[in-house]
Every structure is written in structure tokens, then in C-alpha cells.
Design goal:
With about 290 residues, the chain is α+β, with helices and mostly antiparallel strands. It has helices spanning about 15-30, 55-60, 70-95, 105-120, 125-135, 160-180, 185-190, 215-220, 255-285, and strands spanning about 10-15, 45-50, 50-55, 145-155, 200-205, 225, 230-235, 235-245, 285, 290.
């Protein structure tokens, strides 16, 4: 799981009212058995140019955009798929040679190639660096660290039935571990699909960014102890126990300089990419969802 991934950060605009109503109606008609395949082709309410993004694709992507409101999860998933298609089309138009680097997905490689080719992102000057440092001293510290162990109940992203079974089994293990916490290592060896099972599920010390984004984000929200719910990722459902947590010490300006510069550069790149994506949406045409301004 030691994979670094840098997602595209985009705020999802609201779905068109008609598309949202139609999508909700379609899901409601299928709520009796969500693992049962839809009859006929999946409906399409979102489209980029002449490329349809059907509800089946959006449903598969939604597992990576968990939210209390399913409509918010759907918006985020649909936006991600729209952005992915816009970037793919523009890379093809510019005839960019895209080769994924170690630990990088093809989508991340396309974004990197497009940013390098089409965007001019100026570096922050000394005054901007110091201004940000002074305004964010409390947030600038050595990396937080978490020592954790987990039990991976594997399920393919597209296999809805398997993911439901993995979640149910995970919840059963959580209940069992509440009663008998000393059995975590035993359960990891018996049930986990991760090589860490041989170490009782131990992942060692993890810093932010060391794992895939959806695991990283949820892990650092946990307090020490056994998580009450499973953590869902592209790999399946994880039963997680936080063994130790260490908050990093504050950084002096000289120690924080490179981090601040990298952050401001990332923000400038994200803002430029955000504006560029709106240009691409106008160029290729997007139906069924509005990217935020």
C-alpha cells in the first residue's frame, strides 16, 4: 500500500436538476437489490463531447468519494470522470507522449504532462513565502505519524456484491475485536489479504501521503484504538487499529521554506489547472454536470 497519489482537486458543481432527478429515480428503482445488474445498458445523464459517462461508471467511481449525502458522492464521482475525459482529450489533441512514472497512475501522468506543456506556473517570491509562514505557523510542523495495523478484506472495485460482503465481514471482525482485542494478530493472519498479515497486520509508522489517498485521509482522522467502522479503499474494506499517534513539532521558517514553496506552487498549479479545465469544458462540451467557477 506504499503508493503515493496526487489527486486532481476540483470542487464539484451541482448536477443539472433534470439529471439529478433522473439519476435519483434510476437508483431508487434499483434499491431493492443494488448488486443486481440493471436491465439493458446503463442510463447516461453526463457526457463529454460525444463520449457518454454512464451511471455504471459513476457508481463504480463513487466508492472513492464517500460522503454522508449520496448525491454529493455522485457529484464528486461524476466530476472526476468528466475531468479525466477532458484531460485525456486534450493530451490527445496536443499529441503529448505520456509515460507513467514509478508509483504513478496513467491519469496522474496525463495531468503531469498537460501541466508541463500547457500551464505556466510562477514560483512564489520571498515575501509570499514569509507571509504564508507567519499566517500558518500552527499548521507548519514536522510530519504527524501514526503506527497502525489492519486487516484487508479484499474486493475488486467493480464487484458490488464482494464489497458488500467485505464490509459485512469487517463489521463482524470489529465486533469480535471489541470483545477480544488481543486476537487482532490472529484475525489478521486468518483473514487479511495484505502481506502484512504475516506481521499480525502491522503497517509500521505512516506519515501523511505514504498510502493511497482514500486510506490516508481516513486513517489520519482516527483516534488511537480500534476504528468502529471499516475503512473503504480501492482494495476493499480494512479493519484498522491505531496503536500510536505522534504530532509533529513546529517548524522554523528556514526548515519550513521548501514545504511552503511546494504548497504555494501546488496551489498555483491547481488554480491554473482549474481555470484550464473550464476552458476545456467549453472546448469539448460537457452535459449533465456543471464544473464550479
Amino acid at each position: 500500500m506504499a503508493t503515493r497519489a496526487i489527486p486532481i482537486v476540483m470542487d464539484a458543481g451541482p448536477l443539472s436538476d433534470a439529471a439529478a432527478r433522473a439519476a435519483a429515480d434510476g437508483h431508487a428503482a434499483h434499491d431493492d437489490d443494488p448488486s443486481k445488474p440493471l436491465a439493458g445498458p446503463a442510463p447516461v445523464y453526463v457526457q463529454v463531447g460525444d463520449t457518454p459517462i454512464d451511471e455504471a461508471e459513476i457508481a463504480r467511481e463513487m466508492q472513492f468519494h464517500r460522503a454522508h449525502d449520496p448525491h454529493a458522492a455522485r457529484e464528486a464521482a461524476a466530476t472526476t470522470l468528466v475531468v479525466r475525459e477532458l484531460v485525456r482529450r486534450e493530451c490527445a489533441r496536443l499529441q503529448l507522449a505520456v509515460t507513467a512514472e514509478d508509483g504513478e497512475t496513467e491519469d496522474e501522468a496525463r495531468v503531469r504532462a498537460l501541466v508541463a506543456e500547457a500551464l505556466d506556473v510562477p514560483a512564489a517570491d520571498e515575501a509570499a513565502l514569509r507571509q504564508y509562514y507567519e499566517a500558518n505557523r500552527a499548521r507548519l510542523h514536522h510530519p504527524d505519524g501514526i503506527r497502525a495495523r489492519h486487516i484487508l478484506l479484499a474486493a475488486a472495485p467493480a464487484d458490488i456484491g464482494a464489497r458488500q460482503r467485505a464490509q459485512q465481514r469487517g463489521e463482524e471482525l470489529v465486533a469480535a475485536l471489541r470483545a477480544e482485542p488481543d486476537r487482532f494478530g490472529e484475525f489478521a493472519m486468518r483473514h487479511s489479504a495484505c502481506p502484512s498479515r504475516d506481521q499480525g497486520g502491522e503497517l509500521g509508522w505512516i506519515e501523511r501521503g505514504d498510502t493511497v489517498p482514500e486510506f490516508d485521509r481516513q486513517l489520519f482522522m482516527l483516534k488511537p484504538g480500534l476504528a468502529g467502522l471499516t475503512v473503504e479503499t480501492r482494495y476493499g474494506h480494512h479493519v484498522v487499529e491505531v496503536l500510536e499517534r505522534v504530532d509533529g513539532e513546529p517548524l522554523a521558517f528556514e526548515d519550513a521554506r521548501s514545504r511552503v514553496a511546494a504548497y504555494l506552487e501546488t496551489q498555483a498549479r491547481q488554480n491554473a489547472l482549474h481555470q484550464y479545465l473550464h476552458i476545456l469544458a467549453e472546448r469539448y462540451g460537457v452535459e449533465g454536470i456543471a464544473l464550479s467557477a
